[in-house]
Specification:
InterPro entries: SH3-like_bac-type (IPR003646). The protein has two domains: about 140 residues, Muramoyl-pentapeptide Carboxypeptidase, domain 2 (2-Layer Sandwich), CATH 3.30.1380; about 100 residues, Roll (SH3 type barrels), CATH 2.30.30. A hairpin with an 8-residue loop joins β12 and β13. α1 crosses α2 and α2 packs parallel to α4. The protein starts with a strand and ends with a helix. The chain is globular, with a radius of gyration of 19 Å. Strands 1, 2, 3, 4, 5, 6 and 7 form a seven-stranded mixed sheet that branches. A five-stranded antiparallel sheet has the order 13-12-11-8-14. A two-stranded antiparallel sheet has the order 9-10. It is built from seven helices and 14 strands. By secondary structure, it is an alpha+beta fold.
Length: about 250
């Protein structure tokens, strides 16, 4: 099994990672043929009570680290990455990681960010998706398309420019994030006065992340939801009887 090296001593983010994330990183490393993960920035608030930068690290839900094989650090450029790094990113996405950042002008040629949080995305220089290396985008999106979560939930965002995740079932509620096209979503229930808002889970843990209008959610090929329920939703233009969902 891959080795987990804690190198956070003296760092602001020195709180432990969640067991879920630590397992994800080690499982991905094993599948990618990586010997060790050296974590230099983990959870926050840290031992000093301080936090810094991205809130994705809150509660140990994200890590910045390097990867080693045979005691040597793996490195990448903005144009290409070793096959082990590509495999690692893909597997992380398959296992449910929702945020991955890398880039020479982001954290250098060896360090990568992996964790949870919204929106589901990748990024590079300045923390922007537009600056994410092409290899990172392709590896991440390929992993999510093949993820267990994507195969099980049966639905995905279909809006070309993404859909707004709102705090409640209506346009008057605050926008939490914009969820990119093709993001898998688990529909937990149908809400709103007109039954046209989906209460959704974006990471597969059974908890509500917010609401997306049903006009921007569509069926995907594979689904772990009951076929009769999906058929009802499609026939009714997604305006399903809320009681049907509650019984499932």
């Amino acid at each position: 099994m891959a080795e987990y090296i804690d190198a956070t001593e003296g760092a602001i983010r020195d709180a432990p990672l969640t067991n879920k994330l630590r397992k994800l990183l080690l499982d991905a490393a094993d599948k990618a043929g990586i010997d060790a993960i050296r974590v230099t920035s983990a959870g926050q608030p840290g031992s000093t009570g301080r936090s810094t930068g991205s809130a994705r690290h809150n509660g140990g839900n994200a890590a910045d680290f390097q990867m080693l094989i045979g005691g040597e650090y793996l490195s990448f450029t903005d144009e290409e990455a070793p096959k082990q790094v590509l495999k690692f990113v893909t597997v992380c996405a398959e296992l449910g990681a929702t945020g991955i950042g890398a880039g020479v002008e982001y954290m250098g040629k060896r360090t990568i960010h992996v964790g949870y949080g919204l929106p589901k995305t990748v990024w590079g220089k300045d923390g922007r998706r537009v600056n994410a290396p092409d290899w990172l985008v392709k590896a991440f999106e390929g992993g999510w398309r093949n993820s267990t979560f994507a195969a099980a939930v049966g639905f995905a965002v279909t809006a070309r420019n993404g859909a707004r995740l709102r705090a409640g079932p209506g346009a008057e509620f605050e926008t939490i994030a914009t969820i990119p096209r093709d993001t898998p979503v688990a529909v937990l229930s149908i809400d709103g006065e007109n039954k046209d808002w989906a209460r959704v889970d974006l990471v597969g843990d059974g908890y509500v992340d917010g609401h997306i209008h049903l006009a921007f959610v569509g069926e995907v090929a594979k689904s772990g939801l009951p076929e009769d329920l999906i058929e009802d939703a499609v026939e009714d233009n997604w305006l399903a009887d809320d009681e049907k969902w509650k019984k499932r």
